[in-house]
What we know:
By secondary structure, the chain is an alpha/beta fold. It folds into two domains: 2-177 and 356-370, Glycogen Phosphorylase B (Rossmann fold); 188-352, Glycogen Phosphorylase B (Rossmann fold). The protein contains 15 helices and 13 strands. The chain has helices at 15-28, 67-71, 73-79, 108-111, 119-122, 125-145, 154-164, 211-224, 238-249, 264-273, 288-295, 306-312, 324-336, 338-352, 357-370; strands at residues 2-6, 35-40, 55-59, 84-87, 100-104, 148-151, 171-173, 198-202, 229-233, 256-258, 276-279, 300-303, 316-319. The strands form two sheets. A seven-stranded parallel sheet has the order 3-2-1-4-5-6-7, with helices on both faces. β12, α12 and β13 form a beta-alpha-beta unit. The longest helix is centred in the middle third of the chain and has 21 residues, at 125-145. The two termini are 17 Å apart. The mean pLDDT is 92.
Amino acid sequence: MRIGIDARMYDEGLGIGRYIAKLIAHLERMDSADTYIIFLTRKNWDSYHPGHERFVKKCVNIRWYSPSEQFLLPLILLWHRLDCMHFPHMNVPIAYPGAFVMTIHDLILLKHPLSATSASSTRHPLIHTIKHWCYRIILRIALRRARHIITISQSVKNDLVGLCSVASERISVIYEAADPLPAQESCARLSRFSNTQFFFRAGNAYPHKNLEGLLRAFQRVRRTAPHGVLLLCGQEDYFQKKVLSRINKLGLSDAVVHLGSVSDACLAWLYAHAIAYVFPSFEEGFGLPAVEAFLHGCPVLASDIPSLREVCGDAALYFNPYDSDDIAKAMESLLNKPSTRHQLIARGSRRAQSFSWERLARETAGVYARYTAPL
Length: 375
């Protein structure tokens, strides 16, 4: 078979980019006679180096979410005479008539339309409304035309069935995974926190991530643990700036430190030395940082929502994300009960073994094989 993979988001610093990179890397390790055509842009062309002769790079300098994606990309894909095309995100060129499968990572844009992108707050409301309706139309048509749909959790599958009326048998749940980050005994940038009790949280600051609730919870924690610290990591954008402003308004500027973007090595150090990783989101598709925390022996405090329950199992201490007092109680329990922390570390180590990139690649290849024949 000739299988195409839309890798235009490869190495873009996005969760989807990592998903694409890991999928391709582990497909290369499989014993298969299939040929894979990897579609990249000029920007990420040098980021991917095929590890097998069956994997061929093709440059498609078309930006995602652009008009060219809908009108020009289908013609390019048709020219390559693919048996199956994999779109690893919802941005499917709906005019493409060939067989394709798609991956849906979450439906946050559908469930929280004003939360999942900084554009919703920095652009004119009319522009945002038009883009959101385009998203809904493309998603609806793509879901109807896809030969099969992959989701990264049962929670997302349930959303597709309930919100988009997709038949359950048309959806396969294939879990993501995580890899241990580079070992780091010390991190010069973070050395001042070496003897500090700190919680931390990494990622963007979109409203559905509930950093407001986390800050209010930590304000309470400081009453009983005045020397405790909360470290936040994430690329600076519109919402991160709002978080910085909120930190000052709550009088937490001496206790909450925003580190901005950090290297993988420093992130590994944070996992290794934190009291716990705190995951206060209202909504997640999977929750990859929790699996990373498990791999690095870091306890996880998590929102009691379906996706995080599904991923973390018994390896996390859960709280109601809509109740800042409940978040605070969970944080305080780890400060006051070291035995609870040790139990969570042991459970997390076992839970991490449930997720494998090799399994993701194998099961995804199985989807390619099953859904290339004409309907």
